């Protein structure tokens, strides 16, 4: 027998013919039972670890699995089937764990972080903007450098360990027989296919109901808490498809009353400048906080009302979607991002309409053009062009990001250089979070509050950015006052800032973020209202608007400009007489009467139902209402090619 050379690689063990069904070593009793029980135990430990990471509460996780009306054990069975099926594909027992465990535990960690910072659980749609998250990494690293270093080291060490373990397992564990692999696939594939078939929350499933998997799509936080991370995540996969509202048909759309309003513009068309200021809010609303001097004196003097943001601490694109289209996120799946998922063909917007009336429609954002898919979306919205980091001249920075002052310079330059009337939509960047302490080397304000040094310095960084945004608005006002051309300026914050611990330490919130479903309408207003200014160089500021949803912004802007439109001033104008806030969880009338959880009621106000039908018709349907509500869109549609 030839000697085996020292150091030579050991050959990978082949399947042992003594045990043709499982590949386990001969002599061990009940191999199939042993494999099944060990896989089930592995799945149970993995699912428990996932829930513990996501919830951040060991005893809460234990309670989840002990409750008879929670689908924790169903999740374990599903994971066991996934492990069995992957074992068959990979050809060795339990090797699937090396794929499933790192992937699901990483998702659980990301889900916990998202919930901690933004208040929302992790949705399948979040992977559509993973590039945005990576673009924000420099800011996150700057705020917590040691955490970033440890995380990077852990990732490298984990990948190295995984690679070593994979190779070791392939050398030491016998290959499964063809019969054993077929048996595993015959068990796992049909059962997993069945589970997939019952996960569409839009249809009733008797089996899903018996398994206590209850889709709670109107309250995603409760959905994840009740069903567990894995099942709730799976339930949200179908959100990429938006179902037609009940009764949607050409006949139903024809029955919607047409407003007696035609599209018209004044002889002297006013320039319209809209500034959506990143995370702009009044930080003096925090309890026990004093900021000197006043960081937002211009906004305080000219304030027209409040923008009721459908988001908190992030998801800027969803506010932008409403403000430009006059449509509402309330009629879309919770957690969805229209810019990423649904805007794929020309979609009516203020830009579409105003361009049809001879305006030059331009968008400005000092960030990258792919962020939130803006480049493609703005093209579908009808903007003539979009100036972003790639096409703007080098912009002066204030702190780590392009300054509001530099963006204001660009707005003024663009408007003054245009012979046509302009519609300018600008999205600022400077005051984007996180608000690391000592962000600015030359602060001009002072914060006094009974909170930690870190929280106070973080709040100072935010206040400095807010003051710069306020100064930018004042410059626009001063510029517009000197112009001969009528000029409308709208300015608003997209959502409250992600101040995290500052909210908790000041007592403004119990947690770092506001809950999705507020206990009272008053709490919802406190946590979602941002300042709104609509101002004209002919008539001054619009007054007494109160809280308004972003979807009503086109109505107020066009009305101030003396412009009419069948949908933006006609339909939305009539709806504004009934509601000033249309949110997923709340309707608010002009008199302040609140209707919480309206979407769960059996009977919905016909006006709201018409709103939903028109939106579906124009975004996903046959566009039956286009000739009457959006006549500027009836030209042949061509999808963008990005």
In brief:
The protein has 642 residues and is an alpha/beta fold. The protein is built from 25 helices and 16 strands.
Describe this structure in words.
The chain has 642 residues and is of the alpha/beta class. Helix content is 45%, strand content 10%. It has 25 helices and 16 strands. Strands 1, 3, 4, 5, 8, 10, 11, 12 and 13 form a nine-stranded mixed sheet that branches. It has a three-stranded antiparallel sheet with strand order 14-15-16, with no helix packed on it. Strand 11 (529-536) and strand 12 (540-541) form a beta hairpin. Helix 22 (553-561) crosses helix 23 (566-576). It is globular. It starts with 30 loop residues before the first helix and ends in a 13-residue tail after the last helix. Mean pLDDT is 87; it is low at 1-7, 12-27 and 637-642.
Spans of at least 5 consecutive residues with low confidence: 1-7, 12-27, 637-642
Strand tally, please?
16
Amount of helix? 40-55%
Summed over residues and divided by their number, the pLDDT gives a mean of 87
Question: What share of the residues does DSSP label as strand, in percent?
Answer: 5-15%
From the N-terminal CA to the C-terminal CA, the straight-line distance is: 65 Å
Biggest beta-sheet profile: 9 strands, mixed
Radius of gyration: 28 Å
What sort of overall outline do the alpha carbons produce when their principal axes are compared?
A: globular
How large is the count of helical segments?
A: 25
* Secondary-structure class: alpha/beta
Protein name: Phosphoglycerol transferase MdoB-like AlkP superfamily enzyme
Domain Sulfatase N-terminal: 270-563
Keywords: Cell membrane, Membrane, Transmembrane, Transmembrane helix
Membrane topology: Multi-pass membrane protein
């Amino acid at each position: 027998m030839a000697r085996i050379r020292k150091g030579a690689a050991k050959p990978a063990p082949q399947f042992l013919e003594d045990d043709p069904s499982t590949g386990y070593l001969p002599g061990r009793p009940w191999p199939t039972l042993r494999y099944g029980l060990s896989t089930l135990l592995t799945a149970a430990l993995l699912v428990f670890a996932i829930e513990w990471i996501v919830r951040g509460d060991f005893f809460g996780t234990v309670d989840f699995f002990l409750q008879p009306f929670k689908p924790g054990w169903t999740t374990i069975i599903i994971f066991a089937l996934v492990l069995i099926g992957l074992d068959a594909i990979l050809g060795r027992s339990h090797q699937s764990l090396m794929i499933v465990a790192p992937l699901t535990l990483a998702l659980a960690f990301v889900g916990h972080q998202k919930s901690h910072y933004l208040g929302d659980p992790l949705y399948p749609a979040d992977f559509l903007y993973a590039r945005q998250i990576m673009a924000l990494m420099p800011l996150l690293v700057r705020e917590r450098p040691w955490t970033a270093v440890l995380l990077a080291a852990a990732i490298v060490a984990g990948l190295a360990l995984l690679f070593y373990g994979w190779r070791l397992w392939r050398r030491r564990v016998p290959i499964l027989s063809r019969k054993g692999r077929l048996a595993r696939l015959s068990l796992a594939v049909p059962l997993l296919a069945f589970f997939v078939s019952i996960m569409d929350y839009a249809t009733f499933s008797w089996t899903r109901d018996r398994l206590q998997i209850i889709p709670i799509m109107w309250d995603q936080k409760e959905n994840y808490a009740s069903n567990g991370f894995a099942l709730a995540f799976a339930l949200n996969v179908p959100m990429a498809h938006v179902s037609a509202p009940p009764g949607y048909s050409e006949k139903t759309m024809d029955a919607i009353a047409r407003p007696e309003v035609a599209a018209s513009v004044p002889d002297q068309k006013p320039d319209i400048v809209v500034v959506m200021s990143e995370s702009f809010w009044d930080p003096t609303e925090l309890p026990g906080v004093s900021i000197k001097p006043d960081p937002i004196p211009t906004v305080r003097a000219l304030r027209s009302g409040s923008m009721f943001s459908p988001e908190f601490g992030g998801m800027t694109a969803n506010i932008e979607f409403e403000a430009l289209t006059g449509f509402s996120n309330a009629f879309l799946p919770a957690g969805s991002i229209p810019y990423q998922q649904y805007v794929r063909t020309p979609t009516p917007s203020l830009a579409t309409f105003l361009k049809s009336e001879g305006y030059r429609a331009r968008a400005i954002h000092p960030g990258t053009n792919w962020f939130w898919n803006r480049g493609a979306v703005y093209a579908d919205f009808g903007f003539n062009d979009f100036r972003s980091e790639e096409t703007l001249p080098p912009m002066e920075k204030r702190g780590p990001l392009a300054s509001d002052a530099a963006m204001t310079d660009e707005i003024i330059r663009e408007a003054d250089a245009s012979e046509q009337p302009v519609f300018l939509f600008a999205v600022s960047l400077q005051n984007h979070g996180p608000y690391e302490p000592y962000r600015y080397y030359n602060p001009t304000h002072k914060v006094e509050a009974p909170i930690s040094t870190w929280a106070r310095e973080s709040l100072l960084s935010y206040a400095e950015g807010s003051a710069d945004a306020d100064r930018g608005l004042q410059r626009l006002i001063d510029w517009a006052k000197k112009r001969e051309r009528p000029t409308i300026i709208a300015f608003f914050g997209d959502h409250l800032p992600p101040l995290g611990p500052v909210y908790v330490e000041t007592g403004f919130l119990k947690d770092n973020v506001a809950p999705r479903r507020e206990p009272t309408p008053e709490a919802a207003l406190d946590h979602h209202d941002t300042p709104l200014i609509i101002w004209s160089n002919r008539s001054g500021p619009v007054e007494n608007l109160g809280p308004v949803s972003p979807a009503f912004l086109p109505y107020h802007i066009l009305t101030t400009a003396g412009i009419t439109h069948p949908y933006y001033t006609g339909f939305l104008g009539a709806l504004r007489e009934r509601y000033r806030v249309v949110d997923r969880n709340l309707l608010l009338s002009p008199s302040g009467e609140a209707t919480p959880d309206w979407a769960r009621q059996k009977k919905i106000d016909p006006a709201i139902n018409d709103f939903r039908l028109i939106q579906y018709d124009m975004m996903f349907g046959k566009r039956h209402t286009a000739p009457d509500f959006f006549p500027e869109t009836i030209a042949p549609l061509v999808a963008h090619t990005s």
